[in-house]
Design goal:
single chain; disordered N terminus; 10-stranded mixed β-sheet; 196 residues; globular; alpha+beta
């Protein structure tokens, strides 16, 4: 629990697009940036433009049955709780052999902060973890989606920190950079903008 609180505090204390970032990987046309944290596991971020309406995108990303279509490494996902201001999900992610799969319960809270924008805050809930899943629990997770409408489309900014537990940071950091890039690329593929 201490890891989760420290990770979340560090994430919340940082502004969404503050300094300290560097480009680390181009994934399917999406540039992913990272910055170091005291844990050794990096925060990652990226951005894409999609062409759809905000309510359509929000409904798509909230549908646990469709997570495997756009969230890389998702083996299983289930909506556990739905309220007016938040959703709670269980997600199990595949990992390369010989590691065991990882899982976590996440809360997504929605905040409309302007006429054209919505922020979705993601927080891992390690104390909410169901027993006997056969996977190793993720120790901490925190992130945010910023969805902003413009005349040219819908800008999606995504930032994520994950502490996966007993995984070497160099391996986890590379995999998370790929996950963030592929997540955004998959959304852009599902909601493409016309090429001029």
């Amino acid at each position: 629990m201490r890891i989760a609180i420290a990770a979340l505090a560090a994430f919340v204390a940082s502004s969404a697009w503050a300094s300290g970032w560097s480009e680390v990987r181009l994934v399917d046309g999406v540039m992913v940036e990272a910055r170091q944290t005291d844990s050794g596991f990096n925060e990652h971020r990226g951005a894409v433009r999609v062409c759809t309406q905000l309510p359509v995108l929000e409904a798509f990303v909230a549908d646990a049955d469709r997570f495997s279509e756009w969230l890389p490494f998702t083996r299983y996902a289930e909506l556990l709780e739905q309220a007016d201001d938040h959703l709670i999900y269980y997600v199990r992610s595949s990992t390369p052999w010989p590691l065991k799969d990882r899982d976590m319960v996440y809360r997504i809270s929605r905040q409309a902060d302007s006429a054209q924008g919505v922020t979705l805050e993601l927080v891992g809930l390690p104390d909410y973890q169901p027993a006997g899943t056969g996977a190793d629990p993720i120790q901490a997770a925190a992130g945010r989606w910023r969805l902003t409408e413009s005349e040219a489309g819908l800008d999606v900014n995504y930032q994520l920190f994950v502490h996966p537990g007993s995984v070497p940071p160099f391996a986890a950091n590379g995999r998370m950079a790929t996950a963030v890039g592929k997540t955004l690329a998959n959304l852009a593929s599902h909601f493409p903008c016309a090429q001029i």
